[in-house]
Amino acid sequence: MRNTLAEPRVADALDRMFAAAAGDDTIAARVDGFGNTPQEHADAAEEIYMPISPEAGRLLYSLVRAIRPATVVEFGMSFGISTLHLAAAVRDNGTGRVITTELSAHKIAAARRTFAETGLAEVITVLEGDALRTLADLPDKPGFVLLDGWKDLYLPVLRMLEPRLDPGTLVVADDVELESVQPYLAYVREPGNGYACVTFPVEDGLEISCRL
Fold first, then answer.
1. Roughly what angle, to the nearest 10 degrees, separates helices 54-67 and 81-93?
2. What are the pLDDT tens digits along the chain (212 aa)?
3. Which of 42, 64, 113, 147 could form a disulfide linkage to 89, CB 3.0–4.6 angstroms apart?
4. Beta bridge partners of 51
């Protein structure tokens, strides 16, 4: 049975990027603030990977394999580590596509090279710019959503997508132990807002929410 994550060109790319991400703290220490706007944030952090963990990546892969969504939406691609896990699952399902978003032109160029090298480019669509604009007119309903961009935008992005979320749609949010994610968590954990949630304890935490 096929597992694209185990293919040498994909596994090698992930190993290389996880190794590069180990230097994130050193790079971040040299950054003099992250600016006031989303674009300024993205430009200041253009060398910082900010990746999911390998365990979280394997979880994302397994979730997408299990629910077989036609459309996976990712808020916050960075250099594409999480995108590769999502795209590998879509490829192995034999159906679907990944729509991902990113503000940094530098990261987009690097990620597109990686997607081509790994043979996954054909199942990935990269939307460049502010996700609150680029995701506003999606042609298809998301069956799976990953929130891994700027944390204070998790809730606005979710609320924008919410009218298009059918029952059974999974929404996964990364880094949920951070203070800036707490408004999002308060929203999805409020029973009246229509989600069933569970926290997956890996690094800074993943919140998995099923749309009811």
1. 30
2. 789 999 999 999 999 989 888 775 665 555 555 556 666 566 656 666 577 899 999 999 999 999 999 999 999 998 999 999 999 999 999 999 999 999 889 999 999 999 999 999 999 999 999 999 999 989 889 999 999 998 999 999 999 999 999 999 999 999 999 999 999 999 999 999 999 999 998 877 899 999 99
3. 64
4. none
Measured distance CA(166)–CA(79) in Å, rounded: 29
Structural domains of the chain, with CATH: 4-211 (3.40.50.150)
Q: Decide the pairing of beta strands 206-211 and 170-174.
A: antiparallel
Q: What is the DSSP string of the chain?
A: ---GGGSHHHHHHHHHHHHHHTTHHHHHHH-----SSHHHHHHHTTT---PPPHHHHHHHHHHHHHH--SEEEEE--TTSHHHHHHHHHHHHHTS-EEEEEES-HHHHHHHHHHHHHHT-GGGEEEEES-HHHHTTT-SS--SEEEE-S-GGGHHHHHHHHGGG--TT-EEEEE-TTSGGGHHHHHHHHSGGGSEEEEEE-STT-EEEEEE-
Secondary structure string (H, E, C) spanning 177-193: CCHHHHHHHHHHHCHHH
Q: What is the model's pLDDT at position 20? A: 83
- Length of the chain measured in residues: 212
